[in-house]
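Narrative of accomplishments. A recurring question from our advisory board has been how the design workflow behaves on a single, concrete structure rather than in aggregate. To address it, we present the structure tokens for one chain from the evaluation set, followed by the sequence designed for it. No filtering or post-editing was applied between the two.
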């Protein structure tokens, strides 16, 4: 039952039909004051609330890096309207079964509206994802050791060539990888770090495991470190790759790279905190100390979606020796909290030079990156970030990076893009990261 999809198939249509029927019931009450006062007030209130929320989110506060589509405040307002109608149904002496039907009607309107928002962002693909139930087992992070025992596993020295040529999977290797909740301290940066997550492929979960490469992933904003597990379906995608490559896949580290969900820290050292230092110093130090990995930074990569895609090109341009490979999925032309002037004034104290010194598009114009490579992905229906991805691709190419770009048909600015992009990117990543030749 947990595998039932919330995005396609019959369930979304059933929810929509039930929601429409529920809305009709909530409105259709045979009382004069209901028809002449309550209904007009709720309708006008829903329209006014939708317009107000749209203005507050995108214009007044600019809460998120990308504009929030109007359907989001619209469906939120419909939910509020359904609750208002439900409260109104308690007056006028309705019968008990009418109260029950009003409650059920409001609930299905709320469920249908919430899933319409979910379908737009494609965040919860299944019922299991909605309740944060993952198919991958969640384990305590294995302890690093140089000798094998019943409680721990040993790590072999890094292979001279591609891992797939030197690694022989043992008979007891699990078919699936695992996920672990971790805490990555902000020792140097002082960043307000919360729990992160790590995906360990099957080849990591055996005795004499190979030294595997590292992929660091950053989600969108608002977002959290578990987004690539819930919405990005990362364990499933990595397991699918590992099943045809001797259990080999990157170790994927998903640190907290957003902080407060309501604040955009732009993945840099700013007045909001030293996020760049956290990702480039604290996170790698924790990885080296707690994971048995390939420590050759040539085999490390940084990727992300939306805000995380912008973060990926920031890491690639500001720290090319640490992250010479990147995956920019639906990122922006530059990190921003609205406009460049707003970003410079509020986050860099008005120091334009400090901003341009870390801004990817400016760095790509000023420097060459012959040892860096990356891939850009964007949804074909993403009119907001599609042109920007083309701009960044051309700038990266001109700066000597080995880059490609792919526009994915049928997607907008939603989690369907990284779900489609990561399998396409795996052959490129695996070659750059030393898994395949």
């Amino acid at each position: 039952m947990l595998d039932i999809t919330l995005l396609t198939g019959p369930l979304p249509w059933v929810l929509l039909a039930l929601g429409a029927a529920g809305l009709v019931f909530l409105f259709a009450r045979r009382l004069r004051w209901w028809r002449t006062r309550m209904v007009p007030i709720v309708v006008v209130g829903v329209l006014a609330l939708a317009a107000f929320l749209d203005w507050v989110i995108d214009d007044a506060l600019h809460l998120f890096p990308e504009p929030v589509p109007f359907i989001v405040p619209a469906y939120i307002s419909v939910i509020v309207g359904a609750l208002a109608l439900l409260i109104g149904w308690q007056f006028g002496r309705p019968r008990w079964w009418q109260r029950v039907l009003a409650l059920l009607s409001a609930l299905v309107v709320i469920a249908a509206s919430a899933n319409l928002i979910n379908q737009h962002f494609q965040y919860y693909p299944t019922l299991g994802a909605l309740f944060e139930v993952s198919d991958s087992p969640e384990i305590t992070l294995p302890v690093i050791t140089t000798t094998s025992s019943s409680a721990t596993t040993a790590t072999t020295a890094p292979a001279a060539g591609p891992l797939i040529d030197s690694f022989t999977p043992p008979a007891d290797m699990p078919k699936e990888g695992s996920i672990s909740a971790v805490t990555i301290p902000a020792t140097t940066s002082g960043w307000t770090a919360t729990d992160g997550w790590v995906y360990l492929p099957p080849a990591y979960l055996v005795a004499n495991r190979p030294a595997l490469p590292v992929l660091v992933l950053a989600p969108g904003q608002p977002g959290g470190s578990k987004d690539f597990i819930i919405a990005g379906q990362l364990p499933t995608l990595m397991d699918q790759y590992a099943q045809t490559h001797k259990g080999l896949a990157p170790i994927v580290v998903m640190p907290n790279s957003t902080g407060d969900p309501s604040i955009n820290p732009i993945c840099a050292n700013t007045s909001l905190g030293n996020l760049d230092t956290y990702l480039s110093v604290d996170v790698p130090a924790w990885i080296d100390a707690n994971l048995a990995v390939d420590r050759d930074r040539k085999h490390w990569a940084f990727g992300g979606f939306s805000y995380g895609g912008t973060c990926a090109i920031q890491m690639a341009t500001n720290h090319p020796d640490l992250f010479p490979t990147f995956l920019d999925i639906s990122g922006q032309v530059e990190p921003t909290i609205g406009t460049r002037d707003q970003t410079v004034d509020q986050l860099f104290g008005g120091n334009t030079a400090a901003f341009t010194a870390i801004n990817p598009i400016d760095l790509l114009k000023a420097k060459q990156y012959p040892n860096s490579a990356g891939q850009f992905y964007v949804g074909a229906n993403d009119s907001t970030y599609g042109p920007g991805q083309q701009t960044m691709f051309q700038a990266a190419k001109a700066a000597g990076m080995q880059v490609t770009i792919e526009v994915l048909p049928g997607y907008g600015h939603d989690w369907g893009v990284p779900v489609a992009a990561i399998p396409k990117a795996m052959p490129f990543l695996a070659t750059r990261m030393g898994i395949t030749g």
